[in-house]
TrEMBL record:
Uppermost EC category: transferase
Organism of origin: Volvox reticuliferus
Gene Ontology CC annotations of this record: nucleus
Keywords carried by this UniProt record: Metal-binding, NAD, Transferase, Zinc
Residue intervals of the Deacetylase sirtuin-type domain: 28-268
The protein, known as: protein acetyllysine N-acetyltransferase
Protein origin, superkingdom: Eukaryota
One BP annotation, GO: negative regulation of transcription by RNA polymerase II
Organism lineage string: Eukaryota, Viridiplantae, Chlorophyta, core chlorophytes, Chlorophyceae
One Pfam family here: SIR2
InterPro entries on file: DHS-like_NAD/FAD-binding_dom, NAD-dep_sirtuin_deacylases, Sirtuin, Ssirtuin_cat_dom
E.C. number(s) listed in UniProt: 2.3.1.286
Amino acid sequence: MSLGYADRLKNKRNLGGQLGAKEYHQSFDEIREGVKSLTTWVADSKRVFVFTGAGISTACGIPDFRGPNGIWTLRKKKIPIPADFTPFEYAKPSFTHMAIAALVAAGKVPYVCSQNVDSLHLWSGVPRRQLAELHGNCFAERCTKCRTEYARDFQMETVDFRPSGRLCSQPGCDGPLVDNILDWDTPLPEDELEEAVRQAEEADLALVLGTSLQIQPANEIPTLTRDEGGKMVIVNLQKTPKDRKANLIIRSRVDLVMALLMQELGLQVPPYIRTERLVVEHHLSELKAEAEGLEAAATAAAAAVAALPASSDGIQRVLTIRVRSRHGPGCPLPMVESLRISVTATTADCSDKNAGGIGRNDNEPSAVQESGGCLATTNAGAAVWAPTSSNVMTSPSPTNCSGAGYFSHDFIGVPLGIRWVRCTLQVRLVKWADQGKRDITLHHSIDLSQLTSKAQADWQDRCAGTAEGSGGGQVTNEREAATVESYGAVPGNGNDATSSATTRVKNSSGDGDRPTTTGAYDHTHTFVSQEVQYDPASVISTFLANPPPVDLPKAPEKKRKGASSTNALAAVPTRVSLRLASASHKRQPVSETTSSDMGTVDSETEN
């Protein structure tokens, strides 16, 4: 998994389980025969319980923990960890993720239980209500009061349920939000563990994908299906301590098995389309200021402001444009590497295209009058504002995923005769975006006259003790919905951008004889940053072009009756194991845990 997540966990000498266990590979014919049996069982099952581990994410460029090249394995050997892994924020779901989502959508898989914290199941389209995330989610935070969970597109900076500094947006709550990630000694979430146990017991088939099943108590969950009369299939390159309970073991990478399964079932795997949303805040300030006040406030821009006309009351206008995350002010923008904001004034004719709105999309070319950086007039005598722009603003640290809280620029000295302003955003995305989607240009227009009139009206209302926003709703920032929100496989194409706008009005009181009137509204741009089409035939042909050498484990030796292992490590009873032991009086004990197979810890973060 991601180094950032691993580094946030407590230092632990005994990591539990075996590190760097040997990986085995069956031949393609053996894999295909196994998948045919699996296909029959899936087709005959009403309920398939899927249990996943870090092995389904390695194809996404995310290292596992205990594999031959896993993070814990390399650290124990004091081998430098490769730097070419994919950070969580930019990972795309693997074929297996999307195949599981297809099975969920088809009604075959009512529930998925995962040990992973990378959020890729959610991003693939698996609904949160049908997913147990036993170790949490690096992209989620939860309210400590009402338990509402929020899904983000940036990682939490802490683990073990520490405050993030954000507050719950549910009406009447405002409880503090905490990260939703378990540390080594954090108990598994009771509600999700209980539901996973119930779903496993009721399933006809448990499909275990990409996990060595070494750490208790989660490794017992899929065996409940077998104990209740169902079947269990394990797809993993390494041996597991639960192999003897499996009806079928396939030694293969999970993507190949799932590609063959999708072909046999005739199920189509949906595409993955990641969409980004940028919220653009516009603040128009009307300042009644003395010349020395302007000079002090505008600093380097004072000369430009002085050249622009003011009203008879000496009012100067400042247009502030801020681009921020959809999750609220101060939240990172992990996909944005740099951004440039430009504004130009449009002619009065442009406003007729959207006479009833305060802002509009303007992705088509429009009539723009530009003239060398200063105020100019058209042939009709209308004042226009020459093009002006910010510098290219770069995110402080796009490569470590912290990103910028927001990008902001003040355009000082907006002429009073200007009504429509066209805003252009030139956005450069990080290298993990699709190559053809890294450079995005977004446009929209702002009706300053309506914004100004709303601000002035609100100024009067505020003086009377009220402040209302346009459209009946006050918007102070973009708050999340009551349910978890995630990226999913949704319709979209290329770099087409869509936008929506909400209006908000706010005031800041003046200082003495320098009153300030401010109107503002938010405009949201949506565009695609990543898109993947999944083809089973491509996965299969890639494997056949360079198959790994066939290498199978030796068959386990049969124990002599009454023999016991001096190296046997007694498993510490857990809530799940105790429930498993009492679930059926017919259950026979299985001795399969040895010191070389398994380490017992209070709670697991194997992923």
